[in-house]
């Protein structure tokens, strides 16, 4: 048998001593059995003096070779009955046997994995794979048989992976795609490269939703990692069951705008541009299509790279069937129910230094006559400097100052001068009471958000007349907030009479929303819909310095 590594050999020898001594003492009388701890500890000490720290750790798992265990053995063991001592020795023996078995299984598994890696290295150099160790295990589990024998599954995957690689999100993925294209189709090396790239795509696909703000808006932050074992296992089961096409199809968003945008890429080349649709005189129908904002630039062209990147941003939207959709650079909100548009409204979004984040949430409630608990940033940067100059503005503007217990503090009792230049140290909360002129207006539409982002009404109606409406501190102001509230409150069982009565009372009332209303705040500046390319201004400069990818696009077209 192959010699064990020193670390495992020491652990194994110690535990064999324990196992043998435990069994030896089963047949002895009570007096002789009391020497068992001394013999066991002698074995452990031998391992320790051999400078094998890990052996001590493993022995500690069975309550020997540690100071605490030594004390326990000296005081407790002699008090046990002979039968109890035998049971203790039997338990120690079972643990020792279990560890030895596990160690042997780990050794065999490591040896097989090393052999698998060596076999793969004969086909492809290790530095050419994104996930060499994971790939070795996949082929080991699959007995080194081909995984990509289904040509349709291969074509479907390569189309999706090419669209991802073209986006510039991952330079390594772009290189991996080119390696596939440069490798003979029927070779085992190509099968390996396809698997390597698929696991890269699988990890991206399963995690892009929670990492979109980094991966899709700060290019260069994506790092390839092995997908979860459960996802790899599910895929391999599909391959073995002949349902690889169905598995890959389920990874593709059920969003026709995404599919149209991806399809357009394969009519272009990385160096080409696409004509942009002129703004239609009557754009109502196209705007309503799947709730998608459709404000097009007047003429011009858009690059392949911009479409490719925005296609990946579109995959964050499963479909435009139900919910509230706000494409941030379009300054428009769409409310969709059962695939039909029931409301379109202008919105105001965060200015460049206080950007509205890309996010997905669910509407939880509508607050009628909402107070405004001023966020720390606005409090420190906007209100405290203003109130320091004129404390009388606090009450005139409908604000109140509260301590940590909710007690009101008179503005005249605050030494505002001491917070000049130290606004972040202001120890009180600032809240604005409900009212026609309150910052949140008459309605607030709540949704869980780590950034404290929500939709709301506003008394400043004139701002909706501006073309550039990146004006807020991050939240989304809705022009037709009364219409949106009416629709949502109706779903909650309210009629117009009840709504008007609560508004007149000025009483703050929170109304849970019964229906499932997802909220998507997304950022897409170029897409294809109904065969036309549409673009929007890049208000947050997320598209600046789009990377040029190096892909033989003709080869891509030939294999899909």
Counted by DSSP, the helix tally is 20
* Mean model confidence by pLDDT: 83
Cα radius of gyration in angstroms: 33 Å
What gross morphology would you assign? Answer: globular
Task: Describe the protein's topology.
Blueprint: H1 6-24, H2 30-33, H3 36-49, H4 53-60, H5 67-76, H6 82-121, H7 132-141, H8 151-166, H9 171-181, H10 188-215, H11 229-240, H12 244-250, H13 256-265, E1 273-275, H14 284-288, E2 301-303, H15 304-314, E3 323-327, E4 332-337, E5 340-350, E6 359-362, E7 365-368, E8 372-373, H16 376-389, H17 393-396, E9 399-402, E10 408-409, E11 429-432, E12 443-446, E13 455-456, E14 470-472, E15 476-478, H18 481-491, H19 496-505, E16 509-512, E17 518-522, E18 526-529, E19 532-535, H20 553-559
Parallel strand pairs: 3-17, 5-14, 13-15
Antiparallel strand pairs: 1-2, 3-4, 4-5, 5-15, 6-17, 7-12, 7-16, 8-11, 9-10, 9-11, 12-13, 18-19
What's the gist of this structure?
The protein has 560 residues and is an alpha+beta fold.
What can you see in these coordinates?
The protein is an alpha+beta fold. Among the domains are: 120-271 and 550-558, no CATH class; 323-522, L,D-transpeptidase catalytic domain-like, CATH 2.40.440.10. Helices cover 45% and strands 14% of the residues. The protein contains 20 helices and 19 strands. Strands 3, 4, 5, 6, 7, 12, 13, 14, 15, 16 and 17 form an 11-stranded mixed β-sheet that branches. A hairpin with a 2-residue loop joins strand 4 (332-337) and strand 5 (340-350). The radius of gyration is 33 Å and the shape is globular. The two termini are 50 Å apart. Residues 1-11, 25-74 and 279-300 have low confidence and may be disordered. Residues 93-123 form a coiled coil. Residues 277-286 have a biased composition (Low complexity). Residues 322-505 form the L,D-TPase catalytic domain. The active site is at 456 (proton donor/acceptor), 475 (nucleophile). Pathway: Cell wall biogenesis; peptidoglycan biosynthesis.
């Amino acid at each position: 048998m192959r010699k064990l590594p020193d670390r495992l050999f020491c652990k194994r020898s110690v535990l064999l001593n324990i196992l043998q001594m435990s069994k030896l003492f089963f047949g002895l009388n009570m007096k002789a059995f009391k020497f068992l701890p001394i013999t066991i500890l002698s074995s452990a000490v031998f391992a320790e003096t051999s400078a094998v720290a890990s052996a001590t750790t493993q022995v500690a798992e069975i309550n020997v070779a540690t100071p605490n265990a030594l004390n326990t053995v000296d005081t407790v063991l002699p008090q046990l009955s002979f039968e109890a001592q035998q049971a203790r020795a039997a338990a120690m023996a079972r643990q020792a046997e279990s560890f030895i078995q596990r160690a042997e299984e780990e050794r065999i598994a490591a040896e097989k994995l090393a052999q698998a890696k060596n076999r793969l290295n004969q086909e492809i150099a290790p530095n050419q794979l994104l996930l060499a160790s994971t790939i070795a295990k996949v082929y080991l589990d699959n007995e080194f048989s081909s995984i990509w024998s289904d040509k349709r599954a291969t074509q479907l995957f390569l189309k999706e992976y090419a669209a991802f690689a073209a986006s510039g999100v991952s330079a390594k993925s772009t290189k991996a795609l080119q390696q596939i294209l440069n490798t003979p189709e029927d070779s085992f090396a190509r099968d390996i490269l396809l698997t390597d790239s698929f696991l890269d795509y699988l990890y991206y696909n399963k995690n892009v939703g929670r990492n979109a703000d980094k991966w899709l808006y700060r290019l260069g932050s994506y790092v390839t990692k092995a997908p979860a074992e459960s996802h790899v296992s599910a895929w391999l089961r599909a391959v073995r069951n002949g349902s690889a096409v169905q598995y890959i199809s389920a990874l593709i968003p059920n969003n026709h705008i995404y599919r149209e945008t991806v399809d357009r890429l394969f009519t272009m080349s990385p160096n080409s541009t696409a004509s942009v649709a002129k703004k239609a005189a009557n754009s109502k129908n196209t705007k309503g299509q799947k709730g998608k904002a459709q404000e097009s630039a007047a003429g011009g062209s858009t690059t392949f790279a911009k479409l490719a990147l925005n296609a990946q941003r579109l995959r964050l939207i499963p479909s435009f069937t139900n919910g509230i959709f706000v494409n941030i650079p379009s300054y428009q909100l769409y409310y969709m129910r059962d695939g039909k548009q029931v409301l379109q409204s202008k919105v105001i979004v965060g200015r460049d230094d206080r950007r509205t984040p890309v996010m997905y949430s669910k509407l939880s409630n509508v607050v009628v006559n909402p107070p405004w608990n001023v966020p720390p940033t606005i409090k420190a940067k906007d209100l405290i400097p203003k109130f320091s100059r004129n404390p009388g503005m606090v009450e005139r503007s409908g604000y109140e100052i509260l301590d940590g217990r909710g007690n009101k503090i008179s503005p005249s009792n605050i030494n505002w001068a001491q917070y000049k230049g130290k606004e972040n140290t202001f120890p009180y909360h600032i809240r604005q009471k409900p009212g026609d002129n309150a910052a949140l207006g008459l309605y607030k539409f709540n949704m869980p958000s780590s950034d404290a982002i929500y939709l709301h009404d506003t008394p400043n109606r004139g701002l909706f007349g501006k073309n550039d409406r990146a004006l807020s501190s991050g939240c989304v102001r809705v022009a037709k907030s009364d219409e949106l509230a009416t629709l949502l409150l109706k779903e909650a069982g309210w009629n117009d009479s009840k709504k008007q009565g609560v508004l007149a009372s000025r009483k703050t009332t929170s109304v849970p929303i019964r229906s499932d209303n997802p909220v998507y705040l997304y950022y897409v500046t170029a897409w294809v819909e109904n065969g036309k390319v549409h673009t929007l201004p890049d208000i947050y400069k997320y598209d600046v310095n789009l990377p040029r990818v190096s892909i033989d696009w003709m080869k891509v077209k030939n294999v899909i």
